[in-house]
Each structure stands twice: as structure tokens, then as C-alpha cells.
Design a protein that fits this description.
This protein has about 625 residues and is an all-alpha fold. Helix 9 packs across helix 10. The chain folds into three domains: about 90 residues, no CATH class; about 450 residues, MFS general substrate transporter like domains (Growth Hormone, Chain: A), CATH 1.20.1250.20; about 50 residues, no CATH class. It has a two-stranded antiparallel ribbon. It starts with about 25 loop residues before the first helix and ends with a strand. It has 29 helices and two strands. Belongs to the major facilitator superfamily. Sugar transporter (TC 2.A.1.1) family. It is found in: Membrane. InterPro entries: MFS_dom, MFS_sugar_transport-like, MFS_trans_sf, Myo-inositol_Transporter, Sugar/inositol_transpt. One of its GO terms (molecular function) is transmembrane transporter activity.
Length: about 625
């Protein structure tokens, strides 16, 4: 294909002439050239979401010429002309005369067959899923080990000191994650890339599991689990981000939620390991071989991840951010089914990142400061912190770490307690699978708002079971409450928080934002692991369950008011969502119950203004709920 050729007749799409390729231009100049007021937050956010808006076809092609010459893709010039036209307004490609019928059929098939992706894409998602198994398995294995190591290490008594020491050992990885390793996410990603960060954090996690199996004192086990935490923090931050960055918008939620689905599988697998090894007898010079094998077995999925991570593509968005466009092009061609789709993603993402860099260059603040001083970023921090806090304070990991103890308190044997824990882990995993289809259909926020009331209800039911004097009745009610809780956790607070947090931050602060989000979740995870045994001892099991039941009711209100929906947006378009004012978002949330009542209880044929239109019509007298027109 010739690098220079005659372009078709240009058709004005609006806006005045401006060469966006001048990367030293300021946001003010770019915005003014396209009829955008950069001082208007909503309009500036639209420009950041799609810098191609309002550009004429002539301007667009001139920008493509500069782009392909600069990044070394001039042999694909005509392909990028098409990509730029589609990227400018992806929903209206049918009107583009420059596209052939075959090109349009490619774009139609993207919508018709959203699950039709490359083998490499699904292989990388599998690798990310195995990284989640590495996360979940050590979390549950310590549940079984809790039945054995405290007595061997002399901390198995009923005193407050012994109770806190057991909690301290169990919470050690999450203390390390919250206070230290989560903050390694940014430098590891910056220096090593997404794959490098995953490799080294997974390696630390695997070695930490082996180390824990070789310890002979509680404090030595505590240190080994601190080392395990070096792997948990960066990996839990990076894997969901990688999954989100390589995924098309239509299935991004389903792919990013694989983190929690396979974390739940790892939890289930950890219980299986506990059951397999619980009756292993001691050998000469080896005391506690059963719990040592439990802890050590968690290194197996880590080996699997480390062996394959460098055979999968690097994140195209990360490569573009490093100005490695040719490598990003190679990566996208492995991840996308057609060159046209790869070109669209490469060009639009490059333009959005260029615009973000322009904004960053105009700011004298560093990225950590920007995380808390720019309102768009601060709203993302607030929303991700709420959902990450919710994932822990709904009570799930208090059960995950101590379900065997809980079932023992309800009058079961060790074997029955472990089988009960296995049932809990299996339900948690199985019921996370429906979110694979619902998270991009109903949305992240909707799943949380639907499931949180049930989580509150079943926590109260499980807690009330401990008041039953009959042992079988007590066990039945506790198990019912815990299992139903796990069933509603699976499609809601299980997959949503990490998916939501991985996509709500702009690229410039994504690693820092995700590091903060995971620090929040692991901090409260550590608090639960440390103090839940003391809560049971001081408040009784019923009181501890009531505590979390009350928090689930509070969390419903927080999500309703402060967490906007993120489904179906590209990562760049979410800038517009999080530029929505807090007061307007709260008003939208407060209006939701009235809409639900009219639509689902009274069965009225009403329509609600979508959030994105609600945002853009802040200054208009537009009713939030309207009756649908009769057809």
C-alpha cells in the first residue's frame, strides 16, 4: 500500500481546523478549537473521553498522517483512516461511506457476537484467573490450619492474648498489603509492566506459602505470612487492571470479574486441600505435617501463573503509555479478532492518553496529590473505597477465615466443620458464575443494590440461629444463613468491587488508584481477621453476625448515593461519569427507590433518564421519571 495516496472528498463534521498532533498544545487550545470550554468540567471531560469529537474529516485524516508516521505504522495508513472515522463516533459507523461493506460487517459482528474473541485473549484471561486462585487459596487454607497450628505453637488457649495472636497470624498478609505492598503497585507497574508486576508478586506469594509450611513458632509463621503479603498487594491491584485494559467495553465487566470468581474457586480449593491433608499423620522430626501440607499446597497455582505470564501479551494501554506503539499494535493484533478493531483501539486510546498527558503537563502536582485534589479522581477514590470496604465489612472474610470455628461453635466435629466450610466455599464460587453474564447486562451498581439487602437479612438469620437451644436446629439455621449469604455474595459484592475499582480511574493515576483501593480492602480484611475471634469471644457469635448485618444495611445507602454505574462505557468515557457532581449523583440515587417502586411494584410503564443523560442535562428542566409513550 502506498504511503501517500489520494484521499476521498472531505465532508465537514463540525468544528474548526486544528492540528491535534501538536502534543505541546494546551488543553485550552485544543478545547477552544473544537468549540469546547475547557473551564466547563462536563465539556472538558467529553474532550478527554474522545479527543476526536467535532473534528472534520480533513482534520482527522491529517492527524492520522502525523500519527502513523510518528509511530512507524505508515504502511497501515488507510486502515487507520477507517479506524479514526469509526473511533470518532463508533455507534454511527453505518453512515460512513469510506467504509466498505466488509468493514461494516466486522463492526456489526462485534455487537452481535461480543464473546467471539481470540484464543490469545481468553488465554490471558485464564492466566489472570489463575492469579486469582493464588489469592484465594491461601486465604481459605489458613481456615483449616487454624484447627491445628495454634495448639502446636502454644497459642490455642481461650485467653484474650492467645485469641489476638491467632488473629494476628491470620491477618499478617493483609496488614503487609494494606500498609506496604499495595503501594508497590505503581513502581512495579511503571518499571516492569503489568506482566512483570504479576510475575514477581506471584513468585513472592508462592514462596511465602512454602515458607509458612516450614515454620516452628507462631512469630516465625507470622513473618512468613507478612512475606506472603508482598505478593498479595501488587497482584490484587494489577491482575484486575490488566483484565480490564485488554477487554472490549462490551465484556469488560465479565472479564475483570474473573478475579473474584476464581478467588472464590481458590477459596473452595483451599478447603479441599484442608480436607485432603487433615488426617495426615506426623512423621519423625515433623510435627504438624497436616497443616504444613495445607499451607504449602497453595504454592501450586503460583507456579502455574509464573510459568505462563510472559507468554501472554503485555497490556496495550500500558505500552501506549510508554510510547511503545509498535509493541501495542502487535499486542492488540493478538487480542482482537480483526486488524480494524485493533486499529480503532490503538488510535483512540493513543489520542486519549495524549490528551491526559497534556492535562498532566499543565499541572505542577504529582500524581498522588492529583488523586485527592482533582474532583474527578476524588470521586473515583470515594466510590472504589466504598465498594472495597463493603467487600470486607459485609462479613464474608470473617466467615472465610473462621467458618470452621463457627461451625464448631454450632456443635459440629472437626470433619463436619471442614465439610461445612467446603460447602460454603463451593456455593460462593458457583454463585459467582452468574455475574459473568449479569455484570455487563444489569450493571455493577445494580448488582450491589439488589444483593446488599439480602446479605443483611441472612447475616441476621445466621446470627439468630445461635439463640436456638436445640443443637440440630441451631446448626441448621446457622448453616442456612451462611450458605444463603454466600449465594447472594457471589454475584454481587464478590465480583463487583475489584471490577469497579479497576475501571473507575483514568490511566494517569490508575496504578495509584488501584493500589489505594486494594489497600482499603486488605486493611479492613486484616481488621476482620484480627478482631473477629475477639468479637465472637466478647459479643458471642450472634452479636458478631448482627454487627455485619447492620453494616450491610448502611452499605446499601452508601452505594445508592455515591457509586455511579460504570457498565458499557470505555475506560476513557468514564471520565464523563465521574465528573458528575456529587449533589447530582446523590439526587439521582435518592430518586431510585421511587422509580423501583413504580416500575416493579406498581408495574407502571415508566422510563427513567439514563445516568449519562442525567449528567449532561444538569442545567435543564428535565424530569427524572417519565411515562413511556404508548406505541
Amino acid at each position: 500500500m502506498n504511503e501517500k495516496h489520494e484521499k476521498p472528498q472531505m465532508r465537514e463534521l463540525g468544528g474548526s481546523t486544528h492540528d491535534l498532533s501538536r502534543r505541546s498544545d494546551s488543553l485550552t487550545e485544543v478545547g477552544s478549537s473544537q468549540g469546547i470550554d475547557p473551564n466547563n468540567t462536563k465539556e472538558a471531560s467529553k474532550l478527554l473521553a474522545n479527543p476526536l469529537m467535532n473534528k472534520s474529516q480533513e482534520e482527522l485524516f491529517a492527524d492520522v498522517d502525523e500519527f502513523v508516521d510518528r509511530v512507524g505504522l505508515s504502511e497501515h495508513r488507510e486502515l487507520f483512516y477507517k479506524a479514526a472515522l469509526v473511533a470518532q463516533d463508533r455507534d454511527n459507523y453505518e453512515r460512513l461511506d469510506y467504509l466498505s461493506e466488509d468493514d461494516k460487517e466486522i463492526l456489526r459482528n462485534e455487537k452481535r457476537y461480543k464473546w467471539r474473541q481470540t484464543k490469545t485473549f481468553y488465554w490471558q484471561i485464564f492466566m489472570c484467573s489463575m492469579g486469582a486462585v493464588v489469592q484465594g487459596m491461601p486465604r481459605k487454607i489458613v481456615n483449616g490450619a487454624n484447627l491445628f497450628y495454634p495448639d502446636q505453637f502454644g497459642i490455642g488457649g481461650d485467653s484474650t492474648k492467645d485469641t489476638l495472636l491467632v488473629g494476628l497470624v491470620n491477618s499478617a498478609p493483609y496488614i503487609c498489603s494494606a500498609l506496604f505492598s499495595c503501594w508497590l503497585t505503581y513502581p512495579l507497574n511503571r518499571w516492569l509492566g503489568r506482566r512483570g508486576a504479576i510475575f514477581w508478586s506471584t513468585l513472592c506469594a508462592g514462596l511465602g506459602c512454602i515458607w509458612g509450611a516450614l515454620t516452628n513458632t507462631w512469630w516465625h509463621l507470622f513473618i512468613s505470612r507478612l512475606f506472603l503479603g508482598l505478593g498479595i498487594g501488587p497482584k490484587s491491584s494489577t491482575v484486575p487492571v490488566l483484565a480490564a485494559e485488554i477487554s472490549p467495553a462490551a465484556i469488560r465487566g465479565a472479564m475483570a470479574m474473573q478475579w473474584q470468581t476464581w478467588t472464590a474457586f481458590g477459596i473452595c480449593l483451599g478447603t479441599v486441600s484442608s480436607l485432603i491433608f487433615k488426617n495426615v499423620p506426623d512423621k519423625p522430626h515433623i510435627t504438624g505435617l497436616n497443616w504444613r501440607l495445607m499451607l504449602g499446597s497453595a504454592c501450586l497455582p503460583a507456579i502455574l501463573v509464573c510459568a505462563q505470564v510472559y507468554f501472554t501479551p503485555e497490556s496495550p494501554r500500558w505500552l501506549i503509555g510508554q510510547n511503545r506503539h509498535l509493541k501495542a499494535w502487535e499486542s492488540l493484533n493478538k487480542l482482537r479478532t480483526t486488524e480494524l478493531s485493533a486499529a480503532i483501539d490503538l488510535y483512540l486510546t493513543s489520542k486519549c492518553i495524549e490528551m491526559e498527558e497534556i492535562v498532566a503537563e499543565q499541572s505542577s502536582r504529582n500524581r498522588l496529590v492529583e488523586l485527592f485534589t482533582i474532583k474527578r479522581n476524588l470521586r473515583a477514590v470515594r466510590s472504589s473505597s466504598i465498594v472495597m470496604f463493603a467487600q470486607q465489612f459485609c462479613g464474608i472474610n470473617a466467615i472465610a477465615y473462621y467458618s470452621s470455628v463457627i461451625f464448631e461453635n454450632a456443635g459440629t466435629s472437626v470433619t463436619t466443620a471442614l465439610l461445612g466450610s467446603f460447602g460454603y466455599g463451593l456455593i460462593n464460587w458457583v454463585f459467582s458464575l452468574p455475574a459473568f453474564f449479569t455484570i455487563d447486562t444489569f450493571g455493577r451498581r445494580s448488582l450491589l443494590l439488589f444483593t446488599l439487602p439480602f446479605l443483611s437479612l441472612f447475616m441476621f438469620i445466621a446470627g439468630s440461629g445461635f439463640w436456638i437451644s436445640d443443637q440440630k436446629g441451631q446448626l441448621g439455621m446457622v448453616v442456612t444463613g451462611v450458605y444463603l449469604f454466600a449465594a447472594f455474595y457471589g454475584p454481587g459484592l464478590g465480583p463487583v468491587p475489584f471490577t469497579y475499582s479497576a475501571e473507575c480511574y483514568p490511566l494517569q493515576v490508575r496504578e495509584l488508584g488501584m493500589g489505594l483501593a486494594t489497600a482499603v480492602t486488605w486493611f479492613w480484611n486484616a481488621v476482620n481477621a484480627l478482631f473477629f475471634p475477639l468479637q465472637i469471644r466478647s459479643w458471642t457469635s450472634a452479636g458478631a453476625f448482627y454487627w455485619f448485618g447492620g453494616w450491610n444495611a448502611i452499605l446499601f445507602v452508601l452505594v445508592l448515593l455515591f457509586c455511579p454505574e460504570t457498565k458499557a462505557y470505555t475506560l476513557e468515557e468514564l471520565d464523563d461519569v465521574f465528573n458528575m457532581s456529587t449533589s447530582r449523583l446523590m439526587k439521582y440515587g435518592l430518586a431510585s427507590p421511587a422509580y423501583w417502586f413504580r416500575r416493579y411494584v406498581l408495574r407502571q410503564n415508566v422510563h427513567r433518564t439514563p445516568l449519562q443523560d442525567y449528567n449532561s442535562s444538569e442545567d435543564k428542566d428535565c424530569p427524572e421519571i417519565q411515562h413511556r409513550e404508548k406505541v
